[in-house]
UniProtKB/TrEMBL annotation:
<dbReference type="GO" id="GO:0006508">
    <property type="term" value="P:proteolysis"/>
</dbReference>
<dbReference type="GO" id="GO:0004252">
    <property type="term" value="F:serine-type endopeptidase activity"/>
</dbReference>
<dbReference type="InterPro" id="IPR001478">
    <property type="entry name" value="PDZ"/>
</dbReference>
<keyword id="KW-0720">Serine protease</keyword>
<dbReference type="InterPro" id="IPR005151">
    <property type="entry name" value="Tail-specific_protease"/>
</dbReference>
<feature type="domain" description="PDZ">
    <location>
        <begin position="93"/>
        <end position="172"/>
    </location>
</feature>
<keyword id="KW-0645">Protease</keyword>
<dbReference type="Pfam" id="PF00595">
    <property type="entry name" value="PDZ"/>
</dbReference>
<dbReference type="InterPro" id="IPR004447">
    <property type="entry name" value="Peptidase_S41A"/>
</dbReference>
<keyword id="KW-0378">Hydrolase</keyword>
<dbReference type="InterPro" id="IPR029045">
    <property type="entry name" value="ClpP/crotonase-like_dom_sf"/>
</dbReference>
<dbReference type="InterPro" id="IPR036034">
    <property type="entry name" value="PDZ_sf"/>
</dbReference>
<dbReference type="Pfam" id="PF03572">
    <property type="entry name" value="Peptidase_S41"/>
</dbReference>
<comment type="similarity">
    <text>Belongs to the peptidase S41A family.</text>
</comment>
<protein>
    <submittedName>
        <fullName>Carboxyl-terminal processing protease</fullName>
        <ecNumber>3.4.21.102</ecNumber>
    </submittedName>
</protein>
Amino acid sequence: MMKQGMVINKRYRKIGLFAGIALLAGGVMAFNDDLFQISKNLDVFASVYKEVNINYVDDINSAKLVKTGVDAMLDGLDPYTEFVPESEIEDYKLHYVSTQYGGIGSSIFSRNGKVFVSDVFAGFPAQKADIRPGDQILKINDIDLTGKNNDQVSQLLKGSKGAPIKLLIKRDNTPQPLEKSLVRDEIKQPNVSYFGMVDGNMGYIKLDKFLENSASEVTNALVTLKKNNPAGIILDLRSNGGGILQEAVKIVNLFVQKDVEIVSQKGKIKDKNFSYSTLNTPLEPNLPLTVLVNSHSASASEIVAGALQDLDRAIIIGQRSYGKGLVQQTFNLPYNSLVKITIAKYYVPSGRCIQALDYTHRKDDGSVVKVADSLIHEFKTKNGRSVYDGSGIYPDIYIKQEKFANVTQALVGKLLIFDYATVYRDTHAKISDPKSFSLSDADYNDFVKYLADKNYSYTTSSEKLLNNLKTEATKEKQFNDIKGEYDVLKSKLLLSKKNDLQQHKPEVKQVLENEIASRYYFERGRYETNFKYDKELAQAIKTMQDKVQLASILKGEGNYKVIGKPVLAMAGKKAADKDTDDDDQ
């Protein structure tokens, strides 16, 4: 029996060996087929390019042709996988890498073929030379700017640190052009654009992006704020589009204990799968913490907000975040070009991925849809609160985002807010501290008078609906029947529209005060003047002052047990459960 068993085992082992060889051969064949397809497709691409380049009736830009082809190839993947040719490398770095350059510390814009200063940054040469927003730049180093675009002017303003630069500017209330001699300084765009103390003795940090040194800048801000013995910390990530994943982990580590997993990334290539944990003792593990987010908070911002929510360390306040749960890596290509490729998805501590758009399963027309509610899954935070994947980070406390009225948008878009701030700065030598600055009724009435001869035409939502009614009624040949009522409604709407500047006075004042304050206190002025209008900030202060509510949210008591429950998915589940019950009867 034993001998027979040995024979059988040998036979099976031999069969197993053949099966292994067959599988290996199959794998090699598949690998060779992949190589053949790659070689074939590259050959086809190169041949098409060659024939077009030789035979096309007109001269072609070969670099542009290849870029168009590569872009089209990547366009079917996701918007984050992109090819960057050598000619665009510097622009790419400006968006994704911390930048330092020699300049004067101002930004510009073009209007009617003329170049104007739009912003001046505190502490840099332009501000020290009393160059102001609203100034028109006529010449740079005796080079006339007529006909030059923004990029060309920016290049003229930039140069090596310590190099002299001469500007000829025109100011509205000055009869003769002013000549300004400056020396270029090193300009570095910070990640933390503002930090300071706000109402309730709360520390506030505004983080704009997650580039190099962002964690270091947040650390420095936090150390400074702690000297004031704050009652809590507010981390503002609104409209922060993200950046470097590792910087996000370091920032979470400021508030979370050592050796805690913050985020993991998983992709097709196992070597690129990583888990990132906190490495250091936290700087502030106990103070109440809130994080502000909105629909433009993405990527690394969502890692910070999601991790702090999953670990029940912070209260998230605002609107649902963007929903970008994809990780990119750059790969160098020949001739100083590169490609940025989505290599993985990331997962916050509860195990959820917050990616909202499903690029893998596009519609037949190529359009992208959100992850279906029926495919959304429930996860648990450290304290057992329910959170969900597939749809960004939903805040613990939701604040409805108010949209500015059409009149306000028109005043901003037509630069009338900007222009009046220039006039105001020319006629007022100083204003009060930005936290207390407020336009008086007399000042606001002066602004209304300033607008009397200005064109800021706009269409209200009601007018659009009325115009649609006329269009549809005309199509159906019914307009003549309702023309009398239509004319009465139109007249009433026009009369109401004339009152828009008073009806929407609070928000018009808000943007006007913001722009005016920036003329005296620069970036700090914008933030501090706006604090009194900031609903999310007010809610953060109120929540951290209410110790009972703070504890209830983090423990998941009552209404705080479930965060961002997908209604449609739950409705679908209930319907499915009902169908099952019916089948059983």
